[in-house]
Amino acid sequence: MPLHEDEIPVDETLVRSLLKEQCPDSADLPLSPAGAGTDNTMFRLGDDLLVRLPRTSGDAVLKEQTWLPRLAPHLPYPVPAPVHAGTPTDAFPLPWSLFRWIDGEEPGPDTVRDWAAFGVDLAEFVRSLHRTDLMGATRTGDLSWYRGGSLRECDEWVVRCFEDCRTVASGAGLDVDGLEELWRSALTHPEPSGPHVWLHGDLKPTNLLVRDGKLHAVIDFGALSVGLPDAEHATVWDLPPAAREAYWDALSLDDTTWTRARAWAIAVGVSGLSYYDQTFPAFVAECRARLEAILAAPGR
Predict the structure, then answer these.
(1) How far is CA 88 from the centre of its chain?
(2) Does the pTM of the predicted model rise above 0.70?
(3) C-alpha dihedral (228, 230, 233, 238), degrees to nearest 10
(4) CATH 3.90.1200.10 given to domain 115-296
(5) Tell me: domain 12-100, CATH 3.40.50.970, correct?
(6) Fewer CB in 10 Å around end: N or C, the chain?
């Protein structure tokens, strides 16, 4: 089912045609679906490659192709390595990518051995990314995204999402008033004033890979941007409390940062319920679980 009004349909036949035209040496390798997110559809190609195609127009593909090779040497865990920059065609009028396949599993109770250690490892990745030189990049164009900016600038659309959550099926039984109160409390704090840093932008579990019980790789840099770091920490509410607390302690983050990060987590969660209520049940479930985790433990 399409998730967006301007989405471009993708199937194996289309992907195979793109490969035959632009990557003939790999075009006959086995091809199989490898998952899909809100912005991308993916196919595994042979044993060693991943085809990644955007659902809609945007700059994420070119951004990943440009910056991932430059960021990778500075990071403690593997990240996707582009091997081909696919160009638009009549059948698929957007750029697309071919990456090296990275083996791994999504973090969960059956794949992670020690959640506290996992939180520390994730903090190490974030610390390294945020300390990496910007290499001339600035918060402009495709490297400017709302999650690296101001909470207050998002208030108008977040309030609309709260209203939607009071009516959509996926918001049934959720304490929306409690979430809105936590959102409002964050707006009373001063805006952050630190330097801009590199941001992954979406460090939720589906964008992390585990091997041998430990964090192994970080994937999907479609939300890569430059900005303030608070929103980067929001996805820790997708992890068990032991991982969340270990992450927080490893980065020595203060209570104000915690409050702002929690507000970002709420904003992303309620917008997910509002926008994808009828189209993407798996993502809606992720958003709802995040919001329920916040309500269950709103403090440190």
Answers:
(1) 25
(2) yes
(3) -120
(4) yes
(5) no
(6) N
